[in-house]
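Mods, move this if it's the wrong board.
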Amino acid sequence: LTSRICHPHPEVAALTRGLVTRLLVAFPQHGLWALAAVSKSTVTARRTAANAIVQAAKRQVVGEENRRLFVESGSFCEQLIRLCFHQSKQRISAKKEFSHLVRSFPLQVMMPTISALSLRPHEAPPSELVTVAGMEDGIEVLRSLQLPKKLTLLGSDGERYTFLAKPKDDLRKDTRMMEAAGVLNALFAGDADARRRGLGLRRFAVLALTEDCGLVQWVPHTQGLRHCCQDVYAAEGLFDPQRSNQAVKALYDGAAQQRRKSELMTKVLQMFPPRLHRWVLATFPEPAAWLAARNAFTHSAAVWSMVGHVVGLGDRHGENILVDTSSGDVVHVDFSCLFDKGLTLEKPEMVPFRLTQNVIDVFGVSGHEGIFRKASEITLRVLRANRDTILSVMDTFLHDPLVEWVRSGARSEGGNPHAQDAMETIAGRLQGTLLGVSSMPCLPLSVEGQAERLIQEATDRENLGNMYIWWMAWF
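Not the wrong board. Structure tokens:
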């Protein structure tokens, strides 16, 4: 609804704004988080409309406590935005650098976890929402390019909740992806085959505070896929951060002029035989736990692979794919490379998803021919059977375009060619058409044929050899 508050037809726009206002009055804790980024939009009409909705709801809510919530929410979001862009490479003290924020606690603002933000039609909201009661003093600055901050909020229930404050990133893509994951999980739950296998996508809260910063719920008990591989290789003496990377770089440099990259890939893979199954065995030593973890890894990898292909999810290197060390589930993070953005990179991404030798190694002796293929086919069948539902979820990008699209195209409601092209591509894939840098135009394939072709493309050594070197196709 928030994506349509600037509909070109005045009557529809007025109706939509009225509905959003009523929802905000009924569910202020949830609605204020949803409107945070829209109220600071760079598009003047959207910003004005969102702020008018907030002010109208504030006048309509009953009780001084609810009116104070609107003030506290706005102030809290402003302080979080300040924290996102705080320039520091060292650990930050909240009491020193953000004393105004610390003094404002406790707040009535709802703790923005995925469980709290997800309202289901058939369930009443909890009688007591967990609110933000405080904040730990130490804020860790992570050593990556954008210097995101890891902070811990204290809930009114006495629990600690960890979040990542990310600057210089349009988190609306991540928010939409989590919304789509919620819809897809409901679709999987309604399908007997998918439900029996427990197919689904792990979700976490993503809150866009502006169009270029936001808050991401920290996913506990997870380890990056790359680190899992490095740990097991290092334990067997097959990996050293300096020597191994230099040796791989030398092979890639030597093959820079070769047109065929499959030979290069063969040489690199000989240096790193598949070993990830041993990490799973060491992490889950009990037989029953090991089998459950292996199946959970395989099922979740299949679902994310097929869904990722449909929405054009790229940049699936080993740090954007996490493994839950308590269940074996695969968790994907960082959705900044949606809608085939990977095809526009200097080194275009040639594979539809990550299905490298170590990922396949966890699947068991049948590799991608067993549980993975069946789960992939079930996922594609559910996606294709619910094409209209999925397109309606992704349709919000037509009416609330990404910053990168607005900068390079039209700003009008629903008139951005980038969004329209992305929607047409998704629609084609949901019909079984193969679209990608290495795919030729073709007639729609069956579910089995589409799964087969995607697995072939993802495991093709020529494609893997043409990937960017530090995507690390050997892991």
